[in-house]
Amino acid sequence: MDNKGTVCAAVLLVLQFYLPAVYCGSHTLHYHITVVSAPTPGVPQYSIIMYVDGVQYGRYNSDIRQAQSFSPSLNHLSEHLEMQTKFAQTSEVWQRHKLNFLMGVFNKTKSNGNIHIYQRKCACELHDDGTIGGYQEIAFDGKDFLVFDKEKVVYVPVTHEAVMVSHLWNKRYDPTSSKKYMETDCIQHMEMYLPYISTDLEKKVPPKVKVSSSESESGTKLHCRVYGFYPRDVEVKWIKNGRDEIHSEEAAQILPNPDGTYQIRVSVGVTPEGGATYSCHIDHSSLEKTLVVPFEYNNRSILYIIIPICAALLLLMIGLGLFLFKKGKKGSLFLFSAQQLCLRRLLLSHWRDHVTLPNQWKRLTHKNETNIPLCEYNGNMAGILPLVCLIFSLGTSVVYSGSHTLRFHVTKLTAPYPGFPDYMLLAYVDDLRFARYNNELNRCEFWIPALGALNERITKQKNYTHNFKISHHQKTKLLTDLYNKTSGKDAIHVYQTKSACVMHEDGTISAYQEVAFNGKELIAYDYQMGTFIPTTPEAQVAAQVWNEDYAKIEKVFLENFCTHRLSWYLPALASHLEKLVPPKVKVSISESDSGAELHCRVYGFYPRDVEVKWIKNGRDEIHSEEAAQILPNPDGTYQIRVSVGVTPEGGATYSCHVEHSSLEKTLVVPFEYNNRSILYIIIPICGALLLMIGLGLFLFKKGKKGMFFILKYLYIEYKTQFSPESHSNGAAYSYTWVGQRHVGDRSQEETDQRHWQVSNRSET
């Protein structure tokens, strides 16, 4: 096709319709070509995708082997599509030839499973004022390679390695045909399509919005996911307190959805403050006004419904229990399974606190078996408490208030690395790390003794862990091949995934999964849509593969396997999850060239959530320039250090304020200036004084007139240490040495002015 003009023209003919029409406005027609050197699961070796104004309207690939239209208004042109299929098949041969040409130039081979990718983007633009534009870009193995200069009519190298290839490319593939295509053929084709798809182009689909937060070692992040909107242009930003925009450190990218709509996720790091509000603001052409979605830390509205209902049920069941107890009808009512009646621990919700009732239950049957320990009760509630507990045991082994999360962190290396397992899995329940597996242990290791009661289930868990290992190994190899990475001692690549399921207070379930490769997030699982979404443009191929091979499996894993195991672990981990360990606090100061810095180290606390801030004069918060990170300790507790820069002022006070669930009220630790620098002056002076006094007394007794020398040196020390010039670093200290020089039998008064350059040795 390039011999006749350009392959762009041939590819575009996939959806060329010979229908005369003129459509006004600014429009763009562009398409993407991808050629893969070897078969890859879930990815066609050759594909073309065509867009008009950013909307996907047609495709062709080596799997389906025919041109397809996505617009219903074009479906009646089936015969014409068949003709365009032949043009696309011819183009496929020509594009493969170009890939082989580049592989030959760079001495790339298809051996050892290496995969190489050739990509091409062509476009023409028809502007409002009637002018015409366009561009063409070529990439090889994921890197920009050549760009077509329409004015100079040549292919221009983008990288140093492409310089030699650009000369060969300009000779082998006629650049003038590309210019002709952009200015003539492409524009004519676009004018043919526009009348049929004008309705689709004018459609406006308002965005859907979800706001959420996530915790990491670097702090809190707010996420605003805007999806399902059309057209593509959208503005999304986070606003604090209704007026201050929070800028994201990462550039958000608008990504396409399979249905032709778009999505974007904007994330910002924040330091939660009392009374501060955060909201996501969205501007889109489908909206009459800015859409504002506030972020709420705790959506307690459901509590106002649940609490009265639970209270009413509780009172009803207590009354029923008293009635049945008096009637003596105990045994027949409580015939439940052993799993439901043998409770290790029961948590009753009392507003925000948790009240634990430690009871060992017996299995109630008609025969009233005595080989199982009876319940032991405290106080006068022995008659009511068993019934109250059984109310909450119906339908489940144990009921917990609040939301709970089960998380799995997986790390897989492509090659051995000293001191680090090739494969490692860590399991957490509500940030409590309770289990691990790695290829060195080759077994699942539980760190909580209470999990010993789950021996039979843990045995099954080992089999699941082994299956996980195989699955993650396959995924790692897939990403390594997909991104053309080689493995070995000198080239180690890292695959990581975080999977979690969440059981909320209202009984609903949510989940998420994130996949990273070589330290960069690639794709994220959208639980509501049941699909993997690319977080970067480079990850679109990976997302496509994951959706075809793993989306259904992951949904089953998160909804069934994960939540089922969470219900296993909660009873055994209850005492650990509800434990409260108050924090220890140390405040200190350090000096640097930039000034003084106050440090508040809070450590040994549990659970993880904590708020630490510096307050000046009891009311003014001092914000830290660096985000403080909550780090884990080996004993399962946590630590954090918050540092702020200050300029000491006379009379100003500084204190570290710590809020934690283990504390009844805010812990305030004041910082007291412990100015020890004066000690480093006083102590040497005192030592020198004692030494000189002793020496003077010794000389005096010997008749050597020691008092003269004592007074002389005391005067020197005094002037040296307390001269006004001694209060600046590296100052010149002045003192006057007034002494008496003995010459024979005569004494001569002598005054020497001496100036010394000394350094200030006081330490802060």
TrEMBL record:
The chain crosses the membrane at residues 302-325, 381-400, 678-700. Keywords: Cell membrane, Disulfide bond, Glycoprotein, Membrane, Signal, Transmembrane, Transmembrane helix. InterPro entries: Ig-like_dom, Ig-like_dom_sf, Ig-like_fold, Ig/MHC_CS, Ig_C1-set, MHC_class-I_related, MHC_I-like_Ag-recog, MHC_I-like_Ag-recog_sf. Residues 1-24 form the signal peptide. Residues 207-292, 583-668 form the Ig-like domain. It comes from the Eukaryota. SUPFAM superfamilies: Immunoglobulin (SSF48726), MHC antigen-recognition domain (SSF54452). SMART domains: IGc1 (SM00407). Pfam families: C1-set, MHC_I. GO terms for cellular component: plasma membrane. It is found in: Cell membrane. Belongs to the MHC class I family. This is Ig-like domain-containing protein.
